[in-house]
Write a structure and sequence with these properties.
The chain starts with a strand and ends in a 14-residue tail after the last strand. Helix 12 crosses helix 20. The radius of gyration is 23 Å and the shape is globular. A hairpin with a 2-residue loop joins strand 9 and strand 10. The chain is of the alpha/beta class and about 475 residues long. It folds into 2 domains: about 160 residues, Rossmann fold, CATH 3.40.50.1970; about 200 residues, no CATH class. The strands form 4 sheets. It has a 6-stranded parallel β-sheet, with helices on both faces. The protein has a two-stranded antiparallel ribbon with strand order 6-7. A two-stranded antiparallel ribbon has the order 9-10. It has 22 helices and 12 strands.
């Protein structure tokens, strides 16, 4: 794997200079890249430590660290413009980047370092994402969210005290990103059962066996329990290692991430503040779980009956849907190509459905054992401080529907979205999730307003049909 050093614990920042000196001595200089917020967390201390002499026998000194700070406001985005800025700083010189921050800064530095043919180091400031140790950087190019290839960091440093002092929403966001691996695992189970992407047992066991235990203490996480915060961060790091090993985000990302990508493309904000990746993923996790529960509440015979009576979609129908949601977007061509690749009709569709019905009983059992029931999952997310209703992240009915429908179009990776689509049950399921008598009841209505339907905020009802 790319990452050779990973330190999570107490006093680990004191080891940054040791690793830097061991790897590069005086031949390369560190460049700390932060923003106005993350710099305040550990920037001065890190800069001072990097200027100290090596403890090696040659007593070499590392040249004082250079720094570059993005503004604290407005919120920084991982896009081609920010990457180009860091690329210019690193290109053609003796600088090695140290990313001081969380997901956004890490992804920017990761991609820019790769473009310049250099390794990099990350010092984590919050347990907020799984991307610290992942292969690839999640960035927006031309407004289209995608994962660009690039190696993971050579070294990761995470001081537990700093992680616990992160803003509560960032801690909760990490929990949302970690618990999302549960329905993401269900998506992989489906793809495996249908012969579309086999589960790699070694990579599966890097994440899944201990996952439910790690996320089982959301109240203690919200109280900043150092042990639980450290375990959540370690779980996120381990997920990144799994993605490194596979050179793909399949072990960590399913339908819930595709839904969040749509909201990220929309630059979703709540009261003027961009909604975090982890919060969008948390709501996507509930959506994915609800879809699975609805589908697998039915027997194979019931699904076959509903599927056989569903209207058959032609490619012209499908293209009309793509036009509706993406015609005015720079990503239109990419989306159209993705949809064409995975569109099935005629005998190809019949063959896919036959395979689904053939494995239905075994698949149903495996998926339901993998998932946390919707009601339990909702309570866990709420206890951790994550959103549990669309209104919690400023999503109204229109944006909710847009995210659910268009998320099925942006990746070839097979998920619950594709399973429902192949069965002719996708749009009816989306409509069901928009029903306030079902899984979600509170949708944003406008700035500071909500449409609570028949249920007050904070309560819920689950209806299976």
């Amino acid at each position: 794997m790319d990452t050779e050093y990973c330190f999570v614990g107490d006093g680990v920042l004191d080891r940054v200079q040791e690793v830097f000196s061991s790897e590069w001595g005086c031949s390369m200089r560190p460049l700390i890249i932060a923003d106005g917020n993350t710099w305040q967390v550990a920037g001065p201390y890190l800069q001072e430590r990097l200027g100290r002499r090596s403890s090696g026998t040659d007593d070499r000194a590392v040249v004082d660290a250079a720094t570059y700070l993005f503004p604290a406001e407005p919120m920084l985005y991982a896009d081609e413009h920010a990457i180009a800025t860091v690329h210019r700083l690193l290109e053609g010189n003796d600088l090695i980047a140290i990313a001081l921050g969380s997901g956004t800064i890490n992804d920017i530095v990761k991609r820019a370092s790769y473009e310049c043919g250099k390794p990099y180091v990350v010092v984590a400031t919050a347990p907020s994402v799984d991307g610290y140790t992942s292969y690839g950087a999640a960035v927006s190019v031309g407004g289209f969210k995608q994962t660009l290839p690039c190696p993971a960091p050579l070294a990761v440093f995470a001081e537990r005290r700093i992680l616990c002092e992160a803003p509560s929403p960032m801690i909760a966001a990490g929990y949302g990103d970690l618990i999302a691996k549960i329905p993401a695992g269900a998506d992989w189970i489906v793809a495996d059962a249908l012969g579309l992407q086999s589960i790699d047992p070694e990579i599966w066991h890097m994440i899944q066996p201990d996952l439910k235990r790690v996320v089982s203490h959301p109240q203690r996480l919200a109280q900043r329990d150092m042990t639980v915060v450290g375990e959540v961060f370690s779980g996120l790091v381990q997920t990144g290692f799994a993605m490194q090993r596979m050179h793909d985000s399949r072990p960590a990302s399913g339908a819930e991430h595709l839904i969040s990508h749509i909201w990220e493309m929309e630059h979703l904000a709540m009261d003027g503040v961009p909604v975090s990746h982890g919060f969008k993923v948390a709501l996507g996790t509930l959506v994915s779980t609800a879809m699975y529960e609805r589908l697998f509440s039915m027997t194979g015979e019931e699904v076959a009956s509903v599927s056989s009576s569903a209207p058959r979609q032609t490619w012209d129908d499908r293209r009309a849907h793509v036009d509706r949601w993406f015609a005015d977007r720079p990503s239109y061509g990419q989306v159209l190509d993705i949809c064409r690749q995975k569109f099935l009709e005629g005998s190809d569709l019949e063959e896919r459905r036959h395979r689904i019905f053939l494995v239905w009983d075994v698949l149903r059992k495996r998926v339901l054992e993998q998932l946390v029931p919707f009601g339990t999952l909702r309570g866990m997310l709420a206890a951790a401080g994550c959103p549990v209703e669309p209104a919690d992240i400023g999503v109204d009915r229109e944006l909710f529907r847009r995210a659910l429908v268009s998320s099925q179009m942006i990746r070839t990776r097979y998920t619950i979205l594709d399973l429902l689509s192949d069965l002719g049950m996708f749009l009816p399921t989306v409509d069901a999730l928009l029903d306030v008598n079902g899984y979600f009841s509170v949708f944003a209505k406008g700035p500071g307003c909500s449409d609570a339907g028949e249920f007050p905020s904070g309560s819920y009802s689950v209806k299976k049909t």
